[in-house]
Backbone:
C-alpha cells in the first residue's frame, strides 16, 4: 500500500476507544500508538518507520521523521517486533508495547528525571536521549549560562529548528568572547540553530518549550551532572496556562535580544 493511501485510511479511523494520542509526549509511545491502531483498526500488522512518521505528521500534525522513529524503536526491546522484507524494515507492536502504553497513560502528564552528581557525561546523554530527542517541532530554550559543552549537546540532537536564548554578560569577558567565536563556527554547520543574548539581568530560570512539552531544568545544560538536579517534563496540553505564559515571555525576550 502506498503511504498516501495509508495516511488517508488512517485519517478516517475512529480511535475513540484508544488512549489519547496527545497524552503521550515521546516518539516511542506515539509510534507504538500508531502501530496499535493500524493493527486493531486497519488489520495492518506492520509498518515502516517512514509510514509511521507520515501518519504522525500528516494525520496527527506532529513533526517527526523516520530516523527519530527508528532511533526510538531501537530502544523498545520486546515492545515491538522487527521484520525485514524486500529490503525494507518493518515494525509491529507486541503485547508488552500495548501494556507500556496503558501504564504510561496512568502515570499522568508529569515526568521527573534525576541527574546524579559527578556524572556529567551520563547526565547529558540522558538529557539528549530521554528528553531532547523525543520532543517535537521547534525547540525554544532558555539557559542564562551557555558554554562549549552546551553546543556539544545541541549538536547531538536530530536536525530541527532551535532558538536558544542565553545571557552572554553572565560570563567573564574572555569566556564570553570565546563562546561567541565558538557559536559562529557551530552555526556554520548547524544553520537551523539560532542564538541570542538577552541584555537584561531578569533571566534566571532554565526551560525548554516544544510543540508538545515544557521541560524545566534545575541546572544549566553546560553544568548538568556536576551537582544533583532534576528535569521536570510537563505535557503542554495539560499545562497550557504555564506554557502559554512562558511562550509569551520567551517571544518578548527573543525580540529584545542580540543575535550571536
Residues:
Amino acid at each position: 500500500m502506498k503511504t498516501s493511501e495509508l495516511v488517508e485510511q488512517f485519517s478516517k479511523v475512529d480511535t475513540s476507544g484508544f488512549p489519547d494520542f496527545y497524552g503521550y509526549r515521546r516518539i516511542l509511545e506515539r509510534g507504538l500508538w500508531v502501530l496499535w491502531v493500524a493493527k486493531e483498526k486497519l488489520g495492518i500488522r506492520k509498518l515502516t518507520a517512514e509510514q509511521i512518521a507520515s501518519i504522525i505528521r500528516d494525520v496527527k500534525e506532529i513533526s517527526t521523521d523516520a530516523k527519530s522513529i527508528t532511533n526510538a524503536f531501537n530502544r523498545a526491546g520486546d515492545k515491538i517486533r522487527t521484520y525485514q522484507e524486500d529490503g525494507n524494515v518493518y515494525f509491529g507492536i507486541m503485547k508488552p508495547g500495548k501494556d507500556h502504553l496503558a501504564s504510561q497513560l496512568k502515570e499522568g502528564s508529569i515526568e521527573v528525571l534525576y541527574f546524579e552528581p559527578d556524572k556529567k557525561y551520563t547526565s547529558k546523554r540522558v538529557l539528549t536521549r530521554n528528553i531532547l530527542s523525543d520532543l517535537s517541532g521547534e525547540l525554544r530554550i532558555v539557559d542564562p549560562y551557555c558554554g562549549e559543552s552546551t553546543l556539544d549537546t545541541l549538536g547531538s540532537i536530530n536536525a530541527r529548528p532551535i532558538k536558544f536564548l542565553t545571557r552572554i554578560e553572565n560570563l567573564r569577558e574572555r569566556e564570553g568572547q570565546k563562546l561567541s567565536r565558538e557559536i559562529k563556527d557551530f552555526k556554520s554547520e548547524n544553520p537551523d540553530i539560532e542564538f541570542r543574548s538577552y541584555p537584561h539581568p531578569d533571566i534566571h530560570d532554565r526551560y525548554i518549550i516544544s510543540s508538545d512539552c515544557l521541560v524545566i531544568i534545575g541546572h544549566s545544560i553546560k553544568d548538568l551532572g556536576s551537582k544533583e538536579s532534576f528535569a521536570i517534563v510537563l505535557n503542554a496540553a495539560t499545562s497550557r496556562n504555564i506554557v502559554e505564559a512562558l511562550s509569551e515571555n520567551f517571544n518578548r525576550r527573543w525580540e529584545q535580544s542580540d543575535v550571536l
